[in-house]
Amino acid sequence: MAFFTPLGPDRWMPSVHTNGPWTDGLQHGGPPSALLGRACELVEPRDDTVVARVTVEILGPVPVAELELRSRVLRPGRSVELVEAALSAGGRDVARASAWRIRRAEAVSIPSRAVGPAPLPEAQGVVDPQGWGRGYLQAMEWRWVSGGFAQPGPATVWGRMLHPLVPDEEPSPLSRVLIVADSGNGVSAELDIDRFHFINPELTVHLHREAVGEWICLDAATAVSEGGTGLATSVLSDGDGPIGVGAQSLLVAGR
Length: 255
What we know:
12% of the residues lie in helices and 45% in strands. The chain contains 4 helices and 13 strands. Strands 1, 2, 3, 4, 5, 6, 7, 8, 9, 10, 11, 12 and 13 form a 13-stranded antiparallel sheet that branches. The relative contact order is 0.18.
């Protein structure tokens, strides 16, 4: 079963795999971010461009219910162009993404100076952390280098999709990155999930190259300040090394 099943042109039905950890019937941010990223790639598609930056705005709870998807090119261009996609439920926008697509060109390669990822660990079994809802977490395979869902503090974890994003289609590198990147705040949580919400209203991912392979590594940390704001930051990598960075602003509040 895929994360999303098409119901017709621009209409999608989420599966149980999208269910988030906070409230049953509401999606984790990863699957809709990946679906929006896919739409940003497919709107007036160009083989000569690569997505360099995606920002996802989560405008409200995203239900595990029928969604409408629309996309358009906001700023066309020969070398760079800005595209956007939006998801709506019941006539109301619930999430929106904008992405910069940059034309591929020959250039000198300068490796990232970010610390490379730890090797992919051996299989570690099914993740089922106490207090976290079932759905998205079990639809992904997680292999921890350090930290854990039940352990507060920074964490390094590899993740991969156990199911396709949409039926009969290999997920794109961007989809694989976005569906994992939105977990930065969850894997590096500093507060007890039974006592606090730490919800991200947005996700921004910058990429300097496309991901290779199924596995994406998150090296994540969270800072929380007085006033109920926080910031989760992640170094994103694949098996060949760093590919970019992700960041999430956080709403931090008691349950």
